[in-house]
Amino acid sequence: MKKILVTGGLGYIGSHTVVELQTAGFEVIIIDNLSNASVKVLDGIESITGIRPEFEELDLRDKQATISFFQKHQNIAGIIHFAASKAVGESVENPLLYYENNISTLVTVLQQIQHQENIAFIFSSSCTVYGQAEKMPISENAPIQQAFSPYGNTKQIGEEILQDTAKIAKGLQVISLRYFNPIGAHASVAIGELPDGVPQNLVPFITQTAIGLRKQLAVFGNDYPTEDGTCIRDYIHVVDLAKAHVIALKRLLNEQHETSFEVFNIGTGTGSSVLEVIESFERVSQQKLNYKIVDRREGDVISAYADTTKANTILGWKATSTLDEAMLSAWQWEQKIRKTK
Ligand code: UFG
Predict the structure, then answer these.
(1) Does the pTM of the predicted model rise above 0.85?
(2) pLDDT at 339 over 90
(3) pLDDT tens digits along 272-308
(4) Which of 130, 151, 179, 235 does the annotation list as catalytic?
(5) pLDDT in tens, 199-236
(6) Is 313 helix (H, G, I), strand (E, B) or coil?
(7) I need a labelling partner for 338 at 20 to 30 A (CA). Which of 51, 113, 135, 172 fits?
(8) Residue 304 and residue 130: Cα distance in Å, rounded?
């Protein structure tokens, strides 16, 4: 059984990926600094798979502790690197936190593994690297645009660091997955998204409004050049996204990759407007949502949805859940966590 290190493995996408890794027969070790996650997530994972993953509380900014960790664990075949900060607004307020958390830590990890004979590395990247792309759907060949935020910049720089390092580190093989908008929760509702404070993202804001935690959803602008005037995104079920990591990892471990640094878009290929997401929520929850249209939010691109041809044909991966299924799981998760709080 191959051992896979999942950094940030107690977070939203990390925890769903751990479940899929265990289901596929991998042994998992998680490190997480618990800055935006709870150890209770381990119970959720165990309740789904029957296996409690090994866990060490570790902050990758602690270089000495990170060195000791890698000295102790020499049998790691692959790393899925989620550990990072992810709030766009916060990154504008505190850029150095983002450069330290997302860049310095990546460098530290790579320093520990660069001389390893064989190591697979999956990087959490983002469609934010494309900015407002000229053509929809967005393919991996679309030009990388000047980042809108320090957060977005860390994803671009992270990819460059990995590409440069994979050129000289013979054992290092990298796949960067450019996520579109992950939503939803595991069907068991044992794990899901746990936003800290007021959610910045659309779907947790919708479910928190519906449950009564927020008064009203603000829809940021309906004067965009789209069919209904609201922004378009590609919302992907987090379990579909998690599965893409396992497939990408296997591609590297089975040496099926073509180059030592590959990039794939991970989305559904379908764009949905903010109003369509609200309609989907209202359909699956059978209730009306309290929302109002307000001004545009600074920094939002008009439209972003994926051309998934490369992931479909080369990885052999395809998203299977519909928007309604993803929204229903997000709603079921919201209802469950409010009941147990
Ligand atoms: N929106 C609202 N009201 C809200 C929250 C969001 O109308 O309260 C709208 C936004 O304006 C946008 C859409 O819903 O049109 C989606 O917004 P999210 O904040 O959920 O997602 P983003 O597409 O802005 O951000 C996501 C990730 C980022 C990543 C970015 C790349 O959260 O990490 O995609 O495009 F950088």
Answers:
(1) yes
(2) no
(3) 999 999 999 999 999 999 999 999 999 999 999 999 9
(4) 151
(5) 999 999 999 999 999 999 999 999 999 999 999 999 99
(6) helix
(7) 51
(8) 9
CATH match for 202-233+269-340 among 3.40.50.170, 3.90.25.10, 3.30.110.40, 2.30.110.20: 3.90.25.10
Same fold, 3-182+237-266 and 202-233+269-340: no
Buried b (16+ CB within 10 A) or exposed e, 266-278: bbbbbbbbbbbbb
Torsion angle of alpha carbons 245, 251, 257, 259, nearest 10°? Answer: 40
Please state the rounded mean pLDDT for residues 78-100.
96
Supply the residue whose CA is at minimum distance from atom 20 of ligand 1: 201
151 catalytic residue (yes or no): yes
- Domain ranges (residues) in the chain: 3-182+237-266, 202-233+269-340
User: Is 122 strand, coil or helix?
Assistant: strand
What is the DSSP-derived secondary structure letter of residue 271?
Answer: -
Mutate to test the pocket of ligand 1, among 274, 292, 323 (most ligand atoms within 8 A of CB): 274
Mark out the alpha helices in the chain (DSSP H runs). 12-23, 41-49, 63-72, 88-93, 95-98, 105-113, 150-168, 202-211, 238-253, 274-285, 309-310, 323-340
Q: What is the dihedral of CA 207, 210, 213, 214, to 10 degrees?
A: 90
Position in ligand 1 atom list of the atom nearest CA 231: 15
Confidence of residue 341 (pLDDT cuts 50, 70, 90): low
Query: For position 272, what pLDDT does the model report?
Result: 98
